[in-house]
Design brief:
The protein folds into two domains: 77 residues, Beta Barrel (OB fold (Dihydrolipoamide Acetyltransferase, E2P)), CATH 2.40.50.140; 160 residues, Up-down Bundle (de novo design (two linked rop proteins)). The protein has seven helices and eight strands. β2 and β3 form a beta hairpin. The chain is elongated. The structure holds zinc ion (ZN). The site of zinc ion (ZN) has 8 residues, from α4. Zinc ion binds next to α4.
Length: 247
């Protein structure tokens, strides 16, 4: 067994046996790690807080043959306000599940870690005008990091460049009026929505704090981007239903 150190976010936490927890961490140093936290279900355990979903900590763990075992943890940020607000909680839980589905064990992506940490922080502190913007930013940027950035500049079927107002998750971007007729899953978007999404796709994450103007009706876009994420990860996201029910 060797001892490792990593700063990571708890993206999944489940009970294991009578006393333990299995936590999934997304870390800068070693990517996604699954670790057993012995005794963490005991209310007096030093691991109670640090093994909660969304806890961002400095972790020390031993790597065994098939599992890692938590040895020490020091809280950096607990994002505790997210747990007291069902709407914020549902969005944060969705982001954590998507990250868990998109990356394999020991696969790392520092950009994706920075993205989710920043967005959890903005949502926890209430720094963005609308939490829906946080969700869309997460989806559109993560798709880009995974190599599947939606193309918002021309029709994905016939390559015509114009102001198209349809978005197709199947085609991975915009489609023109003509091509949208053949694509039943394409959703109608306003010019403002497409331009807004393009802005989110290209601007630094910190800039979304300054966005006070945003178009209405962003939910269908979020649904379409979730379909894209589910298609590329090959996994159904259960937290998304919870999110829709709390919207
Ligand atoms: Zn077309």
């Amino acid at each position: 067994m060797s001892m490792e150190k990593a700063a990571g976010l708890v993206i999944k936490s489940i009970n294991y046996g009578e006393n333990d927890k299995i936590i999934t961490l997304f870390t800068k140093e070693s990517g996604k790690i699954t670790a057993i936290a012995k005794g963490a279900r005991n209310t007096k355990s030093i691991y109670v807080g640090v093994t909660q979903l969304f806890s961002y900590c400095n972790f020390v763990y031993y790597t065994g043959r098939s599992f890692a075992y938590l040895n020490q943890a020091e809280m950096i940020e607990s994002f505790h306000k997210l747990r007291n607000d069902l709407d914020k909680l549902s969005k944060a839980a969705y982001m954590a599940e998507v990250i868990n589905q998109a990356y394999e064990e020991y696969e790392s992506d520092e950009s994706a870690l920075r993205l989710i940490l920043n967005l959890l922080y903005f949502m926890n502190e209430g720094l963005v005008a609308k939490d829906e913007i946080i969700l869309l930013t997460f989806q559109v940027k993560l798709l880009g990091y995974l190599g599947f950035a939606p193309d918002l500049r021309c029709c994905q079927k016939c390559s015509k460049e114009a102001e198209y107002f349809w978005f197709s998750w199947e085609l991975g971007g915009l489609t023109c009026d003509e091509c949208a007729k053949e694509n039943k899953n394409a959703i109608k978007c306003s010019k403002e929505q497409v331009e807004f999404l393009l802005k989110l796709q290209n601007m630094p994450i910190s800039k979304i704090k300054n966005k006070s103007k945003y178009p209405d009706g962003l939910l269908p876009l979020t649904v379409a981007l979730n379909k894209m994420l589910e298609y590329h990860t090959g996994k159904r996201n259960r937290s998304f239903d919870f999110l829709l029910n709390n919207n």
